[in-house]
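User: Hey, quick favor. My workstation is busy. Could you predict this chain's structure for me?
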Amino acid sequence: MMEEKQQGKTIQWFPGHMAKTRRLIKAGLPLVDAVVELRDARIVRASRNPEIEQLTKSKPRLIILNKADMADEKVTDEWREFFKKKGYAVMAADCRSGRGLKQLAPILNELCAERIEKNARRQMTGRPLRIMIVGIPNVGKSSLINRLAGSRRAKVEDRPGVTRGQQWIKLEGGMELLDTPGVLWPKFEDQRVGRHLAYTGAIRDQIMDVEDLACSLLELLRERYPNELCARYKFTPEEIADMSGYDMLCLLAIKRGMLVSRGEGDTLRAANTLLDEFRGGKLGRISLETVEDIRRDYR
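Assistant: No problem, here it is.
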């Protein structure tokens, strides 16, 4: 169980079978040649699980910035350069549509060149490359596997915790993928991590105060993407300039005709609408975390 203080309340996080997932990853590592870690391009830092890094450090690792079609393209390019400078293999893709995935096999072949050469010396040229897929819940592992396999081998839903156990998936072109359940980590030292995960749906709404979550998202969007926010909800920059997140949520409800008795805005309905539309990419291409955020936090 994990907890986060949120405006005087304690939010409890239930990440699922973390210990079991750790065991599955540890058991699978000796069987694979490399690890593919998926992150959400909109929240690159929050969708990083430091336990995965520690568990898989003995294997070559490729970072895929998934859902790049929903993220700010300029910010995604900056993240790629950031990782490349640190010596990581990295690529951006949209696993649902398949955009960007053509570069996956060449990158993996390059990462595993030593293993491929060793197999050739041992006359094991037919041995497939074996890759482990890891990442937090709802980051797109099943979409990646289904796209590469050419069929719906893994169950895909837009909610966390769908993949329940490990499974091998054979691909054309001599590669096998080992899927693992998504896993969050035991605690969030930075409260923003929990909020950013909740904005994108990696944490279930049922354990969140969605109105409070929507208020903080509105404040963040006003700071970083005011034009997209105003265009979507017919705000003007002047009318929301000094508003609290709650006042903006009330205004959103009124502008969308979401009213309750006495003509007041239905803030719960408005909150769910905002979160659904943000997660669906209807506000435009938005990144909630930048490389500059890291530089600012560690000055």
